Amino acid sequence: MPHVEGAGGRPVGLLVGFANFLLATWRSTQPRAVIVCLDTRVPSYRHELLPGYQGQRDPFADDLCEQLDRMPEMTEAFGFDRYVAYGSDWGSLVTAFLALDHPDKLAALLITTPGFMPAVEDSALSEEEAAWRRRAFQMMAPESAYQALQGTKPQSLAYGHSDSPIALACWVIEKFHGWTVPGSPGDPPFPMDELLANVMLYWLNGAVAPMWLYFFLNSAAQIPPGRRVSTPAGFLLAPNDLVPPAPRAWMERSFNVAHYRVAETGGHFPGLDNADLLIAELQAFCRRTVQRPA
């Protein structure tokens, strides 16, 4: 990237490119919504747990880091000061925390899992909630061995997954089957090219299963006591996910539930097996929930 300076000698090349990209996208497609995703320079839990995390990447140049810090301000200058967030799997939890910690920036959220696990005694559960939780534990019992192994004995997997792409593929693609068509003798209901491309991204970047640590799973999913998401929240749940769809009352313990739907089909990967429904649900949810600026 060529070095470009603005007034006062501050680097602006990245910001100019970013602004041109936003303008070109807006003019060429006239989108109804724009999503801008910005990472943070602050080390996350991944850096603490994995000393080699992103270790193979070249460090960001100082002038790029300075410009990244100014990107949120530029994004708001373009009028993108409030957002609608969507998440599935771990993205559901990230989205939930975003709504919990930054309600002023988030207009609404739609997720495909129950999100937080509220701290509630068994005696306080309704019959519907208690029945769901028992069934959820029963379904997760035979599916959670991978979490225990990756969270406590990752090195046991590291050699095979680092040495053999077949071993890595078997470990990953089994989930596309078990979390979409559990109990079926057939193949996962996705094109093999898509599955292999997914595995290839992990293989080429060295992001094998031992790097996906789960020993912090339970504490990370707990909503802090006494807190509740006030942002309007929507839920699109699937019948063949890892756990059965949670009742609405369970989510209402942690969220301001504005929308709740259980799809007729589908599993853990709505972007693959229920993409049309997911897009339609997002659009309808935003139309009903998000207040347009005057």
Structural description of this entry:
This protein has helices spanning 13-29, 45-49, 62-77, 90-101, 127-140, 145-152, 154-163, 165-178, 192-205, 217-220, 248-252, 270-273, 275-289; strands spanning 83-87, 106-111, 229-237, 255-262. The chain has 294 residues and is of the alpha/beta class. It folds into two domains: 1-81, no CATH class; 83-294, Alpha/Beta hydrolase fold, catalytic domain (Rossmann fold), CATH 3.40.50. It has a four-stranded parallel β-sheet, with helices on both faces. β3, α11 (248-252) and β4 (255-262) form a beta-alpha-beta unit. The longest helix is centred in the first third of the chain and has 17 residues, at 13-29. The protein is globular and about 60 Å long. The relative contact order is 0.12.
Q: Rounded to an integer, what's the Rg over CA atoms? A: 21 Å
Question: What's the number of structural domains?
Answer: 2
Q: Helix tally?
A: 13
Q: What order do the helices and strands follow?
A: HHHEHEHHHHHHEHEHH
User: What is the CATH superfamily of the largest domain?
Assistant: Alpha/Beta hydrolase fold, catalytic domain
Measured as a percent range, the helix fraction is: 40-55%
Strand order of the largest sheet: 1-2-3-4
Low-confidence stretches: none
Mean pLDDT: 80
In terms of DSSP E residues, the strand content is: 5-15%
Structural class estimated from helices and strands: alpha/beta
Q: Determine the N-to-C terminus distance.
A: 39 Å
In the CATH hierarchy, what is the class of the largest domain?
Alpha Beta
CATH topology of the largest domain: Rossmann fold
CATH architecture of the largest domain: 3-Layer(aba) Sandwich
Question: Using DSSP, what is the number of strands?
Answer: 4
Shape: globular
Instruction: Characterize the main sheet.
Output: 4 strands, parallel
